[in-house]
Amino acid sequence: MVFNISSKQESFLKQVDNVCKILRPYEEECYLQEKFNDRIIPEFAKVGMLGCPISRRYGGLGYDTLTYILALQRIGREGSSIRTFFSVHTSLAQTTLQSWGTEEQKKEYLSKTTNGNSIMAFALTEPVAGSDPSSMTTKFEIRDGDHYVLNGKKHWIGNGTFADIILVFAKDARNDNNGNVSAFIIDRNSCPSLRVQEMKNKMGLLTVKNAEIDFENCIVPKKNLLGPKGKGLSIAYSGLIDGRLSVAAGALGVMEDCLEESMIHSKRREQHGSILAKKQLIQDHIALMVANIESSKWLSYRAAGSVQKLHNYIENMKRTEDWQSKLNITNKEYSLLRKEADTLASIAKFHATNTAFDTSNRAVQIFGASGYRKTTRVARHFLDSRATTIYEGTNEILKLKIAAMMLGRDYTAYR
Ligand SMILES: Cc1cc2nc3c(=O)[nH]c(=O)nc-3n(C[C@H](O)[C@H](O)[C@H](O)COP(=O)(O)OP(=O)(O)OC[C@H]3O[C@@H](n4cnc5c(N)ncnc54)[C@H](O)[C@@H]3O)c2cc1C
Question: Which end of the chain is more exposed for a tag (fewer CB within 10 A), N or C?
Answer without folding.
Answer: C
